[in-house]
Write a structure and sequence with these properties.
- The chain contains two helices and no strands.
- α1 packs antiparallel against α2.
- The longest helix is centred in the first third of the chain and has 24 residues.
- The chain starts with a helix and ends in a 6-residue tail after the last helix.
């Protein structure tokens, strides 16, 4: 696994933990802060799933 992939996976895990904590804090999945963190996690997951191609 490349260093960049490892870094992305660490960011994904941190974002996942933050999402869980945010949901616990606000209590509902539809709170704007929870949605904001969910979008951030989705972005990181997309980066991991579809890494940029080098031409």
């Amino acid at each position: 696994m490349k260093t960049e992939e490892c870094i992305t996976l660490l960011r994904v895990e941190k974002a996942r933990q933050k999402l869980y904590q945010t949901q616990q804090r606000y209590g509902i999945l539809t709170h704007p802060k929870v949605i904001e963190q969910s979008v951030a996690l989705d972005h990181l997951l997309n980066q991991y799933s579809y890494p940029p191609r080098i031409s």
